[in-house]
Design a protein that fits this description.
One of its GO terms (molecular function) is kinase activity. The protein is of the alpha/beta class and 282 residues long. It has helices at residues 41-52, 73-83, 97-106, 147-159, 165-175, 179-187, 192-197, 200-205, 210-226, 244-248, 250-259, 272-281, and strands at 5-11, 15-22, 25-32, 62-67, 91-96, 111-116, 120-125, 130-132, 239-242, 264-268. It has a domain at 5-102 and 272-281: Nucleotidyltransferase, domain 5 (2-Layer Sandwich), CATH 3.30.420. Strands 3-2-1-4-5 form a five-stranded mixed β-sheet, sandwiched between helices. Strands 8-7-6-9-10 form a five-stranded mixed β-sheet, sandwiched between helices. The longest helix is centred in the last third of the chain and has 17 residues, at 210-226.
């Protein structure tokens, strides 16, 4: 039987969404992201104290946390140590954001689940567990199709002056960034992946320009070839997507899926709605 009071968490590197379920009511709260690669247990506790606790009236029986960077026992421990000081008597289950995406997108059915947000990832889900997962080595080495990956392309086009005069002017007017400032943000900044992903707004704001469309199509196509093409199930099961990039550029996903003869399934901004339905059934 599902817990009477529970919290479901979907946390990326940028934001975390909490759905607080208390019997027949539910409330949603957004906080800073809590990836253990970028924040320690004390930092997590601080976020929870300042951004979540003011919205909680009663202690939940269970917390289901799905987060970026939670694939290893050590990183799961960081998350748990961040929650435990505030939820001593609560059962806390921690799993990857990929498992959260799989449950939220596929429910109890077979499918391929993909995340295209600040970072990217994918897996084959058999309705109960993840059976295949192509490695996702992070934004420095890969994260094809993600916000950080596309943001890098924007900066490359700007720095190399590949953009035409129109886009160079718009970029300078929008960001007013010097070359050295860009390098400092990337190599010395606190969250370089978020900084890079922020430039996807420039892509959204300038849709229709052939250079913008090339960045989007090439960057997201790289995700298809480096991830989806590695799974035979890509052509036998629906392929589902979640994350900000999936949501805002779903027309590109549709065109690429049709081109590669792939059955496109659900596209959700976040998997939260699916996760709520999944846990209410348990």
């Amino acid at each position: 039987m599902a817990a009477k009071r529970m919290i479901i968490v979907d946390s990326g590197a940028t934001n975390a969404t909490f759905t607080i379920i208390d019997k027949g009511t539910q409330q949603q709260v957004t906080t800073h992201g809590m990836s253990p690669y970028f924040i320690d247990a004390k930092g997590i506790t601080k976020i929870l104290e300042e951004e979540l606790l003011p919205h909680i009236e009663k202690t939940p029986d269970s917390i289901f946390f799905y987060g970026a960077g939670c694939a290893t026992p050590a990183n799961k421990k960081i998350i748990k140590e961040g929650f435990k000081p505030l939820f001593k008597n609560t059962d806390i289950e921690i799993d990857t954001d990929l498992m959260g995406a799989a449950k939220g997108l596929c429910g109890n059915t077979k499918g391929v689940a993909c995340i295209l947000g600040t970072g990217s990832n994918s897996c084959v889900f058999n309705g109960k567990k993840i059976t295949k997962n192509n490695p996702s080595p992070g934004f420095i080495l890969a994260d094809e199709g993600s916000g950080s990956y596309l943001g890098k392309r924007v900066l490359q086009y700007y720095i190399y002056k590949t953009f035409d005069d129109e886009l160079l002017y718009k970029f300078n007017e929008t960001y007013n960034l010097e070359y050295r400032q860009i390098l400092d943000k990337i190599y010395r900044g606190e969250f370089p992946n978020k900084f890079l992903a922020g430039f996807t707004k420039f892509l959204s704001d300038n849709r229709g320009h052939f250079m913008i469309e090339n960045i989007l199509e090439d960057g997201i196509s790289d995700f298809f070839t480096q991830h989806l093409f590695k799974y035979g199930e890509t052509w036998t099961s629906p392929v589902h997507f979640t994350g900000s990039i999936s949501w805002h550029f779903k027309d590109v996903l549709l065109e690429l899926s049709q081109s590669y003869e792939i059955e496109l399934g659900n596209i959700m901004q976040t998997p939260m709605e699916g996760l709520i339905a999944y846990h209410k059934k348990q």
